[in-house]
Design brief:
The chain is of the alpha+beta class. It is built from five helices and three strands.
Length: about 150
Amino acid sequence: MAEHVGYRNFRAFMETADSCLKPGGIFLLHTIGGNKSAKRIEPWLGKYIFPGAMLPSIAQLSAAAEGLFVMEDWHNMSTNYDHTLIAWWENFDRNWPTTKGGKFDERFYRMWKYYLLSCAGSFRARKNQLWQVVYSKGGVRGGYESVR
């Protein structure tokens, strides 16, 4: 989710989530993240796939949430996400003959092939991460128990 919010809006996003929670409420943030702080996404992805997006870092998410939430759990699920992207590619490729034509031309096909397979490679190389972060408003009484 946060990859679509943008660097300049992280704090406002967290403040909005905070305003929606009652004391003790829980906020689950599911997002793709990067290993380094950045202010923009890779140029090709920003132009053709996700304009205005960027991958938040641990530092950026932590700074945005500081003073608003207790971070209860941070689960990194990235080691399996390349399998998801490969499955999406296989489904896309298998169904391409029924969807091509009109606005879905060969250029569109090549762009999505590049996008899905390069992202799978990026996760496999551990450049990108897939996180689920559990925040609470004021802490969970008795502690938060993670279920995995």
